[in-house]
Each structure stands twice: as C-alpha cells, then as structure tokens.
Amino acid sequence: MEMRLFSVTFRTVFWRFFLFKDCAASMFSALQSKAQQIVQSLYGLDGVHISWERPQQTVFGDIATPVALQVAKRIKKHPNAIAGEIAERLSKEPSVDRAEAAGPGYVNVWLKPEVLIEELMRTREACTARDTRTEEHPVIVEYSQPNVAKPLGIHHILSTVIGQTLVNFYRHAGYPVIAWNYMGDWGTQFGKLAVAFKRWGEGKKVSECSIEELLALYVRFHDEAEQDPLLEEEARKTFVMLERGDEGVRAFWRDVVGVTKASLGHLYDRLHVKFDLDISESFYEDKMAPILEEGTKKNIFTKGEKGALIVEFSEESKLPPALVQKADEGTLYATRDLANLRYRIDTYRPERILYVVDVAQMLYFQQLFAIANLLQWKLPELQHVVVGRMRFADKKMSTRKGNILRLEEVLDEAVKRAGDLIKSRGDSIQSDDPQDLAEMMGVGAVVYGILSQNRQSELVFDWDRMLSYEGNSAPYLQYTHARARSVLRKADAGESIAFPQCIAALTEAERALVGTLQQFPHSLQEALSGHLPHHLTHYLYELCQSFNAFYNSEPILQAAEPQKTLRLALTALTATVLKCGAELLTLRVPDRM
After folding, report:
1. Most buried residue, 142, 241, 347, 489, by CB count within 10 Å?
2. pLDDT tens for residues 538-584?
3. What is the pTM (predicted TM-score) of this model?
4. 187 CB-side CA count, 13 A
5. d(CA 222, CA 215)
6. Hey, what's the torsion of the CAs at 186, 191, 194, 195, to 10 degrees?
7. Are residues 281 and 231 in the same domain?
C-alpha cells in the first residue's frame, strides 16, 4: 500500500513540474497558454500559474487543474462557479474532447484521441539515445571504487550499479560521459598485505594466488596484529618503501593489482558495467607533491602535530580539521583525491564530477570540496552522490563468519533461485535457454532490487521481494516485456507499428495506457536531474501494471480495425519503452518467458 501511495504522489509532482518546462511545443503547453488566456479574459487576471495534474483514474480526465481555487482567492467568487466557466471555454478548444468542473474547484479535461496519440511520438523519440551535446564538456562519474586484493562485497553493488545507471542516463540524454573506476590500490592497507604475504605467503608467486587467498592474508594480518602491535609499524614502513620506489615492493604491488583486476572483470560483465577509465590511486603518486607545495605556499596546509600537514576551516563551515599529509610524510586518500581532482580538471575540463560513494563519506567529501575551494581552483560542479547503507531483510546474510559477503556469491544464489522458480512454474515459463533466462532474472532481480529504492535511504536486501512476479521487481518487468513481445509475434508484427490516424474513441484501459506511456520522457528527465534511478523503476512498474490491465481487459488480436492496429501499436511501444528503461538500468529483458 505504501508503494502505491508513493507512486501516485510521485506522478502528481512529476506532471506539475515537467509538462510545460520540458515540452514547450507539446499539446500541453498550448493548452497551458490557452487556459491562461481564458483566465485573463474572464477575470482580468495576469500571471496566474496553472499547474496540471494527471488524475489517478481516467474517469476524472486525462489532465486536471485546481486553478479555480487560486482565482477564487483573488476575486472572491466560489471556486466551483469559476471551474465551470473555465471548463466551458476549454471545451471549445480543438484539442479538447470535453472539460468539466469537478470537486472543490477542479477542471477536468479529456483530450481528443488523435491528440493523445500524437503526443506518443515524444515517447517513441525518448527511447532513442541523443547525440546533441557532443561539444559540451564531459560529465565524469566515479563509481564502484574497489580495493586492491579484495573481492567485491555485496555492499559494493550499491555504488557500482547506481553509478553505471547514472552513466547510462547521461549518455542517453546526449551528454559526453567518462565512466571512471577509481580503485584503491595505494595506502597503508597495501603495506599490510605486503607484510602478510612475506610472512605467510608460503613461497607462492603473487600471480598464482586467487583474490580469496590475498584476502585471507589481509584478514590474517589483522588477527596477528592484535597480538603483535609491531606489525602495524612494519606495514607503515613497507608502504613508505612503496612510495619511495623500492623495486621489490613495487613488483609485488603490480602483481597484486593484476590479480585484482582480472578477478573483477568477469563480475563487471555479469552486471553490465563498463568503464572508460580505471585510473587508480597509484597514478597520482608523482602528482601529490605539487598539490602539497601549492597548499603550503598559500598557507592553506599548515603544520600540525609532529609535523603533519593539516587544513583548518572557518568556524562558519563547522568542519573539523582535515589531514593531508602524515607526520612521516606518508600520503592519504585526501592527498590523492586532490591530485585526482587537479588532474581531471587539467586533462578533461569536465562540466561536473559525480562521486557515487557511501553516505559514511559525507564529511570527507565536504572537507575535500572545501579544500579545493580554499585552493581557489576553477572548479567544475562537484557532487557527492550519496548512497545509503545496506540492511538485510534476512539477518542470516548480514555476516559470514566475520568475512565479507561476496557479491559474486549473492549473484550465484540469485541465479540459482531464479532457476528453481523457472522449474517450479513448469510450462508457464518458456525459454530456449533456461540457464540464460535464470541469469537474466537472477542478476536483474538483485540489481533492480537495489535501484528500485531511494539511494539516499537505507537500502534493504530482500530475496522474496526481488524475485517476485507480482510486485515492483525485475521478473515482473521481464515477464511483462515478454508478454508484449509474444502478442507482437502472434500478430507477425515488428517492433514499431504506426498508430492509426483516425480513432473515434478510447476505452478506459487504452486511455490509461496512453497516459502512462506519455510520462516516459519526463520520468527519464526526473531520474537524471535528481540522480535518482528509483524514479525510473517506479515508472516502469506503473507501465507494467497499466499494460497488464489493458492486456487483461481488451482483446488485441481479435479486435476490429482500426482498434486492432491501435492496440498493437500500444503493445509495441510498451515493449520498446520497457526494454529501453531496463537497459538504462543495466538489465536485460527476454523476448520469451
């Protein structure tokens, strides 16, 4: 129930904001202008803002406005009378089928079928990626950010798939984008691994080790360090050796990075995640000294305890001091991130940089951006795209004997459960390749289960909801797409069907589906502008509901013309929108299921 209420609220806000800002040449903007002219003509009022909403049910019209309430306050007349007068005038417009006064001062408007159908051309166009912004400066999206010698944990899926989805959104809208994987391959944690491998590596070559073996060594280091505190100091010294160019340590480091990248490639492929660059922390080794020198000369970096370099912020900022260089002259994340930012600005001149990172790093990014401003750099738009923490509906999944819960294990389990579901459904699920369908459903369920939640909130991992055929889930979307494609195959129709030019009337189910399809361009825009993928998932869920209601109530292949062509065209456009939306969310949809 809560999900449905949220959906309705979202839809109302969505139409109010986008109908006239993003569709200046549409039928809606023309109606907007006409309604303002009517208000001025009837009541002599200028500057009246007319907001349109999409009613929850088509029996209340295609669009509605509460403008009479606004006018009533200014001219001291009953809003119902005003709504009736405005409705009478709007009924005479060529695009309007009828208009009525309703409720406490609302005007409900039904548009002519041909006008509604014509507006669907915008929906079809929105399914095609644009290339209109190729001359603009790029958007850099940094995401995933794995650490060297560690497999991806389930929590890594948050930044990874949300970041990839934002890359897809920007590219689809025509922006030049650089998808950047910023691996943590530098720092004291590497010194810990080097010490562990030297002590307990049992003479193996690093290149022969699996990433699980490297992780086990790292975990052992921490276990042993509890008994022997000197290990921590040895690790710090080893990292300093790496920074100073010790060839033996560097060779070990290169092998570890190679093992890590090789192990991640297959997993990224399964998630349909692709990067343009994977320039990691180590790249900035020789680029940090100029930053430290610049900050020191500008008196922004000052000496702290034992000679460390710190940044102190103004009292107004309410930010605690930040460390940019340790007392032993070792560098930190902040040092490398400042060098990273300087390099990106100088090399790519980006319009904006998005850091898709856990909410726990909020203070860190506030400090980082503040330091960049103190350095008086000419900055692009910088944004920390906050990702909430993960919680498990099944508490058994939250730990694995103190070890991380590996993302690949979760995907394998999801695929297994999807395969079991396919078998349990018998002939009701048909596929030429059940294993590929299980992969599509299982991986899609995990990804969609994340993206369907507000990234700014706590994200809940719930198997039952993710693999449901009924609720807001990937299998439901995939099933609906397959159902639409099945209809088109039976009709021997292609992916794109022209709408008939003359339609006398629309049934309630047809009108509801048309209205939902019209919202697709705007849902894309809202998901992009807020960097909120869940707006698109909620829209796709509503489209699935609307199409299935249409499918269950209206004969398609048995309908007489021109209704048959209309319904096939609506079915084809639904399939196109579902596939486009799914792919933007990194999902695949089957043609048969």
Report:
1. 142
2. 999 999 999 999 999 999 999 999 999 999 999 999 999 999 999 99
3. 0.88
4. 15
5. 11
6. -170
7. yes
What are 459-507's pLDDT values in tens digits? 888 877 777 777 899 999 999 999 999 999 999 988 889 999 888 899 9
Residues 363 and 406 in one domain: no
In a domain, 116, yes or no: no
Provide the token pair at 418.
């999807």
- Looking at residue 11, which CATH number applies to its domain? 3.30.1360.70
Residue type, 491: A
% of residues, the chain, pLDDT over 70: 94
- Specify if 127 maps to a domain: no
pLDDT at 16: 35
Let me know if 304 is exposed, middle or buried by CB neighbors in 10 A (0-12, 13-18, 19+). Answer: middle
Report CA-CA distances (Å) from 313 to 132, 323, 327, 372: 41, 12, 20, 12
| Tally of CA atoms within 13 A in the half-sphere of 230 that contains its CB | 1
Q: Is 49 domain-assigned?
A: yes
Q: Are residues 276 and 218 in the same domain?
A: yes
Assess contact for 45 and 86: CB atoms under 8 A: no
Domain housing 70: 2-111
**Signed CA dihedral, 231, 235, 236, 237: sign only:** positive
Number of domains present in the structure of the chain = 3
Kindly write down the DSSP assignment for every residue of 317-349, as one continuous string.
Answer: GTPPPEEEE-TTS---HHHHHHHHHHHHHHHH-
